[in-house]
Amino acid sequence: xxxxxxxxxESLFPEDSSMRTQVAILGAGPAGLLLSQLLxxxxxxxxxxxxxxxxxxxxxxxxxxxxxxxxxLLCDAGVGERMKxxxxxxxxxxxxxxxxxxxVNLSELTQGKAVTVYGQHEVLKDLIAAxxxxxxxxxxxxxxxxxxxxxxxxxxVRFRYQGENLELRSDWLAGCDGFHGVCxxxxxxEALKVxxxxxxxxxxxxxxxxxxxxxxxxxxxxxxxxxxxxxxxPTVTRLYLQCDPDEDLSKWPDERIxxxxxRRLSFVGPKKVRRGKVLQKGVTSMRSFxxxxxxxxxLFLAGDAAHIVPPTGAKGMNLAVGDVWFLARALDxxxxxxxxxxxxxxxxxxxxxxxxxxxFSWWMTTMMHRFxxxxxxxxxxxxxELDYVTGSVAASTALAENYVGLPWAG
Length: 410
Ligand code: FAD
Ligand code: PHB
Known about the structure:
Layout: E1 18-26, H1 30-41, E2 46-49, H2 54-59, E3 65-66, H3 68-76, H4 81-86, E4 88-90, E5 92-97, E6 100-105, H5 106-109, E7 115-117, H6 120-133, E8 137-139, E9 143-148, E10 156-161, E11 164-175, E12 193-209, E13 218-220, E14 227-233, E15 236-243, H7 254-264, E16 277-292, E17 295-296, E18 299-301, E19 307-308, H8 316-337, H9 341-344, H10 346-368, H11 376-391, H12 393-403
Parallel strand pairs: 1-2, 1-11, 2-8, 5-13, 11-18
Antiparallel strand pairs: 3-7, 4-7, 5-6, 9-10, 10-11, 12-15, 12-16, 13-14, 14-15, 16-19, 17-18
Helix pairs in contact: 1-6, 1-8, 8-10, 11-12
The protein binds flavin-adenine dinucleotide (FAD) and P-hydroxybenzoic acid.
P-hydroxybenzoic acid binds next to β14.
């Protein structure tokens, strides 16, 4: 048996290869690690199991924009120190179209709120360091993971770790293992309803060693397709181009990428995209996906395991954070007061916010991308929508309040 605070220099496993904890968490992404951190603040014990290595998790480039409430929660959870120093507070974003940039003043439209540009992998580094410093248990590179006994009072995870077959029993199981994890597929299909939409395009993303030319993000609508100008730090730029969903990266030498970025991100004024060494390249497909409910017996799904949004609204990681905020609170009420009502309403509470965020991500995606290259009606409609969104206080306020993040509850 394992106990919180146990000296981690001892073997983690007892003779019989079975362990027990209060909450077993699958996946050391933002959902799993933040849940573990929040639970520890409530003195609830958890063990995190992760398929990949620590170095892989800490270097995988993914999200970069933290909602106002996400940044606040990281601070409240005691993992916001580096983010406060190194993260970039952005009080506005820009929509680019017809060669012009239009700034949406997020802070002015949302009573002072803002977003923070800080890489997801940096958030994960901070969370891993905090968990390990406080004696939290994260087992990296687990293999052959399966979950069982979900409808009993003691769900079970079986896995291989350092060559041994092990079993982890717990009161509750948190499925934070992403879209391709094992938790969601372990729920009988008849117990879940799936909602899905795929888009006829993807994003080709690069990370470049170049100082950002602009201070804030630019979402650009262009005849040739969408482009996004973003950043990670004062010396690293993150850029994306709309491409085919199954785009062959070998057809995109650096020169072709830069030419397309320069064309799609060309606006009135002296600034243009600054080129630099390409550090990373990849293609992301785009989909909207939700399963209902987000719970099966003692298994709770959180984050990408339960829902995916197209990245246009920068919402995926933020939704994962919102889910585990609900889950940590519900588990705290259970252990501290014996209350099960928040566990019962977990799925419903999360889904209310998930669907609003799905709507926003779908809306941003349809407004910013070229669907049919030759559909001139659609092109004019999109330009009119962009003109309206940037010209009307009511419409830009709706964009701003969604972009900085809707409240978690209510
Ligand atoms: P994940 O981060 O996928 O973590 C799941 C973890 O579980 C992984 O570490 C995985 O290795 C592990 N795992 C899988 N299977 C198992 C198993 N069987 N056993 C144990 N562990 C397992 N979101 C934003 O909010 N803002 C953005 O700006 C943004 N930009 C994005 C840009 C790109 C290019 C992409 C691809 C995504 C972006 N996202 C963004 C989305 C965001 O990265 C995800 O929504 C977020 O990572 C979800 O977190 P998660 O913890 O639910 O899942
Ligand atoms: C990013 O910086 O990776 C990023 C920013 C905004 C988005 C998506 C991704 O909407």
